[in-house]
Amino acid sequence: MNTAKTLKRRCELRPVDLAREHGLSAQAIRNYDDAEILPPAERSDSGYRQYTPLHAQALRAFVALRAGHGHQRAAEIMRAFHHGDTETAYRLIDATHIALRSERTTRAEVAAALSTLTTATTTPVPGPPLTVGELARRLGLHPATLRTWETQGILRPPRERATGYRSYDPDLVRDAEIARQLRRGGYPLPQVARFLESLREAGGADALATFLTDWQLRLTTRSRELLTGAAQLDTYLGMLEGRPNPDPV
Fold first, then answer.
1. What is the tens place of the pLDDT at every residue in 94-146?
2. How far apart are CA 24 and CA 22, in angstroms?
3. What is the dihedral of CA 208, 214, 219, 220, to 10 degrees?
4. CA dist 18 to 56, 76, 196, 205, Å?
5. Is the pLDDT reported for residue 180 higher than 70?
6. d(CA 27, CA 25)
7. CB 154 within 8 A of CB 190
8. What is the pTM of this model?
9. Rounded to whole angstroms, how far apart are CA atoms 130 and 168?
10. What is the pLDDT of residue 77?
11. Which of 180, 167, 209 is nearest to 121 (CA)?
């Protein structure tokens, strides 16, 4: 048998060969090919797609990128590189890192704010709803301050149907007291709003503490996934540039 033909055949991979490594279907590989997530594939005389180790590495890169960037952005990154638009590809990669950094900062702000609060402050005290004037007097603030907090999303008081007046139930009174404490600690309004939103979503201070621990784990996992994706992508780009594949198929 001709040696050149033998070597060529060893480099030819079927869709199922690429799919098996990642637990995908052969149809998924064809879909990724059509979506330009993989580089263009040659066709056999009978019309079948012929893949190579380059395609196998492109798929590894995409799967790894998808874990950290999400499916849509990972696909956009791969397409950008295949179109030779490296500027767009790197901008997309940078955008994910910037968003992750912002999320990490928000998580740190929420954790720092939680550490400054007392159990008494974060526990609602039962009682009848308060008007804006009554709550302002309780907190030693001007009613206009409470209205400003409302525009910033810190407080969201409903209005009484008959009078249109704002009504602050025990949970909102608690939120207002937390906001006052954080403001005295120098926290800007946007940070106060983010903290209270996290507190509401978690369902209380104890639940928020658990949420923050899980949040940190998710951030760490995401950072590692981005590193893994970057490593696989670098290997793929190296193959495009002619560098040898360190782990050939």
1. 999 999 999 898 888 888 877 777 665 666 768 888 999 999 999 899 999 99
2. 5
3. 140
4. 6, 20, 47, 48
5. yes
6. 5
7. no
8. 0.70
9. 5
10. 98
11. 180
